[in-house]
Design goal:
Cathepsin D, subunit A, domain 1, 19 strands, alpha+beta, flat
Length: 449
């Protein structure tokens, strides 16, 4: 019911020799194929060129093998690397490529996910007579999920055809949208100082956090460094995160444009905070809330790169509080300046959206995992064998170092069986000669006796 139709694969030409017409066609048609690196949108161009040139010029399997070796790149090459060896495998290579990349649904989804407007996607679906629910070209009833389910949308269409009018997408788990109800978190812009370098960043003031966290990229931009120390962060429901490359350091911060510096102690670096993006428009806030009209609220928008916890609470303890009606946003003055947070009734804050990503593992991914598994198994570390001399020395050391309660070490003879030459008679002769010589010198002879 998916609506996909298998493409008929035309195997590579099996002609031993091309015909005269095909030989003449080779003069006007390029032998090279367009590069294909696995992108579905490039598949029709590559496959069409392969079939057309193969039919017109009658390329043999040997010639097609060379052509495929030159044009396959990236994931597509890795998929058929093991088969691009001999000419006999050329038809199987084309079969495999068609099986993985020649699926109409894959190509359509790739095209629709490009940077097209919703109107362009809708026109594409109408032009190619596709189902608005599953984006397939089937006929009859569709059994795909009936509703969009993006935000409050309950219309019957595919999520890729959802109209994003009135929404502004922002990177991260949060997005600024033109809705009536939003929340402002306790965020304030500050200047961060380190060795003469000053950067203006957004700081999240969190009374529920025990430590101060700073993103690694911000520390690198400052040129700062600290003491490496592993960090383990634990959250509710047993959620745990380990930062192996975390560093402990101290920074200096101040309110924007102020010369009064504050010491930020025991800050810990993390790879990323992923805190909500936030936008504050002072004019809208003052227009909506009368109690904020006299407050010097800073305008800001962007990503939060620093979170200050309660062990630096002196920096953001309330020095002055201005509030309005119940549940209205409040303004708090601290050593870092004024911050406004709470519930707002217009789109001046942060709207948090929950999203679920579905990841499907294809045969290509499994193939790469298996290749990696075998590659690791083949790279076994081998221990070189000891030479005969080393083995002999170890045996003597183990056998003769300790004998009972005594310690002795044997000489490192080359062989265990030792046959020495006869030397006793020669030693006797040398003794007699020495004795005769000594008798000629009576004084020396008497001293030896």
């Amino acid at each position: 019911s998916s609506g996909e139709e298998e493409e008929e694969v035309e195997p590579a030409s099996l002609h031993v020799q091309p015909t005269k017409e095909q030989r003449r066609a080779r003069h006007g048609i390029s032998k090279k194929l367009p590069e294909f690196n696995g992108k579905p949108q490039d598949w029709p161009r590559f496959y069409g060129a392969f079939l057309a040139s193969n039919k017109a010029c009658g390329f043999t399997n040997n010639e097609n093998l060379v052509r495929l070796q030159e044009c396959q790149k990236g994931p597509a090459f890795e998929l058929v690397r093991g088969r691009l060896i001999t000419a006999e495998f050329v038809p199987r290579v084309i079969e495999k490529l068609v099986q993985v990349y020649g699926r109409p649904k894959l190509i359509l989804h790739s095209l629709l996910k490009e940077e097209w407007t919703t109107k362009q996607r809708q026109n594409f679906v109408v032009k190619h007579n596709l189902c608005r629910l599953c984006l397939n070209g089937h006929q009859g009833r569709c059994f795909a999920p009936k509703r969009c389910n993006i935000g409050d949308c309950d219309q019957m269409h595919h999520p890729l055809l959802h109209d994003q009018v009135g929404s502004k997408l922002v990177e991260g788990i949060s997005a600024h949208v033109n809705m009536d109800d939003c929340m402002l978190f306790r965020v304030v812009p500050v200047d961060v100082h380190y060795n003469g370098t000053k950067l203006t960043v957004l700081v999240f003031l969190d009374e529920g956090a025990f430590i101060t966290l700073v993103e690694r990229q911000l520390v690198e931009r400052l040129g700062a460094g600290g003491v490496p120390e592993r960090l383990t962060l634990r959250w509710t429901a047993g959620i745990e995160r380990v930062e192996k490359a975390s560093q402990r350091l101290s920074l200096t911060i101040s309110s924007v444009g102020s010369l009064k510096l504050q010491k930020l102690k025991d800050a810990r670096t993390v790879e990323r905070l992923e805190l909500p993006h936030q936008r504050v428009d002072p004019n809208k806030l003052k227009e909506r809330y009368a109690h904020l009209k006299s407050i010097p609220i800073a305008s800001y928008q962007g990503k939060t790169e620093l979170m200050v916890g309660i062990h630096n609470i002196d920096m953001f303890k309330p020095l002055e509080v201005v509030s309005g009606e119940v549940n209205d946003a409040i303004a708090v003055r601290t050593k870092l300046g004024w911050s406004v947070y709470g519930y707002t009734k217009f789109g001046a804050g942060t709207q948090t959206n929950n999203s679920i990503d579905h990841h499907s593992v294809t045969n290509e991914d499994l193939d790469l995992l298996i290749r990696e598994h075998y590659r690791l198994e083949e790279s076994v570390i081998t221990i070189p064998n000891d030479s005969a001399k080393n083995k002999r020395a170890k045996e003597l050391l183990e056998q003769t170092t300790r004998v009972g309660e005594r310690f002795e070490t044997g000489l490192l003879w080359k062989e265990s069986v030792r046959n020495f030459p006869e030397s006793y008679s020669m030693a006797v002769k040398r003794f007699k000669q020495l004795e005769t010589k000594l008798k000629k010198t009576p004084e020396l002879h008497n001293n030896l006796q």
